[in-house]
Amino acid sequence: MGKWWYVRHFLGRLVPEYDYVLAVDSDLGFDFSLDDYFDSMARYGVAVSQPATVDPWTWAWGRQTYGGPLEGRGFPEGDFTGRWTTYVECGPWSAYSAEAFACLRPLILAPATTGYGLDMVSCLGIAARCGYDPHKTCAVLYNFRMEHHDSKEASKQAAFLERANAESRLYWEATGDFYADVPSTFTGEVF
């Protein structure tokens, strides 16, 4: 079973005891205070977030990457903390306010194990379910940086890619209406 199966089945009971939920992969490195990170989420009213990645090859539209060959593409100049987005990757790191996680949990499909597809629908799904502004629900916090060592432990499992592709299709079929009235803009304003 993958991380998201456990999140769906076991984490819901614990959430009322906390202000934030953090879902991380085992091959992640970071060197910052979690208190500072969650304080930034609270200060700017961010419901779902992830740090910028230091990996220059990050595929997620190049918007989360800090440094490397993608620097300068889509990054504003000056002092800023983050950027609003409609996409936050479910792995290697995703952080949720307790309220946002309560909105996300029913969106996690029962057979889900990989998280593939969930990250494509989670920001707008949470906004639709809980009444958030769809363009100010999720953010990448650039002042915090993580390194994904990308050990590919999950993808080494038998039939992983088949499961991942099937889950992606299920998420799109189950939640396509979230995108009906909201243009999916992957870069928003900075804060």
Structure description:
There is one protein chain. The protein has helices spanning 3-10, 34-44, 98-104, 118-130, 160-175; strands at 20-24, 28-30, 48-53, 82-85, 93-97, 138-148. The chain is an alpha+beta fold and 191 residues long. Strands 1, 2, 3, 4, 5 and 6 form a 6-stranded mixed beta sheet that branches. Helix 4 runs parallel beside helix 5 (160-175). Residues 56-75 have low confidence and may be disordered.
Brief summary:
By secondary structure, the chain is α+β, with helices and mostly antiparallel strands. It contains five helices and six strands, in the order αββαβββααβα. Strands 1, 2, 3, 4, 5 and 6 form a six-stranded mixed sheet that branches.
Keywords for this entry:
single chain, 191 residues, alpha+beta, six-stranded mixed beta sheet, 5 helices, globular
